[in-house]
Amino acid sequence: IEEIRHGVGRPRQVFSLTDRAMDLFPSRYFSLTHRLLGEIKDNLPPNTVDAIFSGVAATMAGDYAESLAGLPLEERLQRLVESLSLEGFDAEVERIGDRILIHELSCPYYRIGREHPEVCLVDQTFIAAALSLPVEKVTCLLNGHSHCTFSIPQETVLPEAPSNG
User: For residue range 53-78, what is the model confidence (pLDDT) as tens digits?
Assistant: First the structure.
């Protein structure tokens, strides 16, 4: 509530919505995003479009990567799952044989991804950049799977130094 004076008499009270309340009202983000991506894809070569998505992910991951550097792998994986959650993904980690699997059980980009699958580069690049490890996409919601899965070969993970404590 904000009071605004305008000459003689009582001040007017002007009400405005908080950011949180704004989220409760209809928005056109999807439509705008869809149109922007369409224009980008229509006017730029595919490798440039991919570079844009990878750059967005690298920027997103930059802060996380710094905070994960030097931590043991298990803690990096746990913090990655927390970071993905903050970005709108419901994620979990699983180890099978010689691979570390990261499952994304939900995707905040699903509706956009159906029309613009390049958006999937964002989470794959985000995971790789945050962990500083190569990541391969194994399954994808957009291809009819129940979730997206990313695989990290165990041999790419450097052995951790023994702790002195």
Answer: 889 988 888 878 888 888 998 999 99
Instruction: Give the pLDDT score at 6.
Output: 66
Length of the chain equals 165
Q: Mean of the pLDDT values across residues 92-108?
A: 94
Average pLDDT over residues 90-119: 93
Other CB atoms within 10 Å distance of the CB of residue 84 = 22
Angstrom distance (rounded) from CA 129 to CA 136? 13
Domains of the chain and CATH, by start = 17-156 (3.30.1380)
Query: In 3D, which of 125, 1, 111, 149 has the Cα closest to residue 52?
Result: 125
**Angle, helix 46-68 to helix 29-43, in steps of 10 degrees:** 120
Which residues contact residue 45 at a Cβ distance below 8 angstroms, ignoring those fewer than 6 apart? none
The DSSP 8-state label assigned to residue 106 in this structure reads -
Q: Which residues partner with 102 through β-bridges?
A: 93, 150
